[in-house]
Design goal:
Helix content: 40-55%
Number of domains: 3
Number of helices: 13
């Protein structure tokens, strides 16, 4: 048996990392803890080998750093590693499970994102956070004004009229209430400006990225959706079929079979909830134009006649996801089929 390490399982952490290395025969060669400052020095002394770790916070950074030392590094989904953990939950058992899981021929891996792609995703996640905060503040503003008898219709126009009405009657309202409401208005206005700045940055990246530009040719896919998919999926070849890509986004039915009886439930809702939500939102926009009798939307019109609107929107989102995979895989643009 050889003592040369060929496979290393690395359990990531904030300060203390666990290493589990085996040779070609599966015999344990190293099992030790590393401080954060010792990780790169340890792998720098090893001969090129296979390094595997779970996809988690900071994992993409460590993949790039360790791969730069000449090792082959891959990421695995956490859910696929968990079944290989033996009794007890420790860092050592996690590292051993990672080392064991990578030997399975059916194991799936996570595409490693570049710093640029991660930066774009930071723009998306920050925008999503600010949009949620803006919604919370506008809801609070509506609720507080309703307590004072000031109400308006839903939507952006309704909110504008609500603000205008508030400024007209501000003199007749209690002073403390005015102070609280003005604070909410200032915060909401500041969030709107920040969201617009983030969207401008996303649009700038979208214009310079070929994959994102091609994805935007799909009906219902704009710069926000296109850039989110392009940044999240650096390598579409990891998905063998379009259905696998749709399943990764949680847009396919969840199977529940037993005793030879097959039953399909609602969508699985696995994978990236952000992209799934964007795709469903884009599909809802496409549905609004199916009443015009466009032959290219006959399939969606048929779905709408048989299913509830939300179910039809998810079906359209599933179809959009499959088209997006084909565009990324084949380096093409979307071309609508004639009737």
């Amino acid at each position: 048996m050889s003592d040369v390490i060929v496979t290393v399982g690395l359990d990531l952490a904030k300060n203390v990392f666990q290493v589990h290395g085996v040779d070609a025969d599966g015999r344990v060669c190293v099992r030790r803890k590393l401080r954060r400052a010792e990780v790169l020095a340890f792998f720098g002394e090893l001969s090129p080998c296979l390094v595997r770790m779970e996809a988690c916070a900071s994992s993409h950074f460590w993949v790039r750093e360790i791969a730069g030392l000449g090792h082959e590094v891959k990421l695995m989904p956490l859910a696929y590693v968990k079944p290989y953990v033996k009794r007890g939950k420790t860092d050592a058992s996690d590292a051993e499970a990672i080392c064991e899981a990578v030997t399975r021929p059916t194991m799936r891996f996570v595409a490693v994102k570049s710093e640029e792609q991660q930066a774009v995703l930071m723009l998306h996640k920050t925008r999503e956070l600010l949009v949620r905060q803006r919604t919370m503040q506008t809801n609070a503003l509506r609720a507080h004004l309703a307590e004072l008898g000031i109400v308006a219709a839903q939507g952006v126009d309704g909110l504008s009229s609500l603000k205008a009405h508030f400024h007209r009657v501000i003199g007749s309202l209690p002073g403390h209430a005015v102070g609280a409401l003005q604070a909410l208005l200032r915060m909401a206005d500041g969030l709107v400006e920040e969201i617009e700045r983030l969207e401008s940055r996303i649009l700038d990246w979208h214009r310079t990225n070929d994959a994102s530009h091609r994805l935007a040719t799909i009906p219902g896919v704009g710069p926000i959706i296109a850039s989110a998919i392009a940044a999240n999926v650096p390598d579409a070849s990891l998905f063998k079929t379009a259905r696998q890509f749709a399943a990764w986004l949680g847009l396919t039915p969840r199977a529940n079979s037993s005793g030879g009886k097959e039953r399909q439930m609602g969508i699985s809702k696995q994978g990236d909830a952000y992209i799934r939500r964007l795709l469903v939102s884009g599909a809802s926009a496409v549905m609004r134009f199916t009443r015009q009798g466009d032959p290219g939307k006959a399939w969606l019109a048929g779905i709408k006649e048989r299913k509830r609107p939300k179910v039809a929107a998810v079906a359209q989102a599933n179809k959009t996801a499959r088209i997006a995979w084909a565009i990324l895989r084949r380096n093409e643009v979307f071309v609508a089929r004639s009737a």
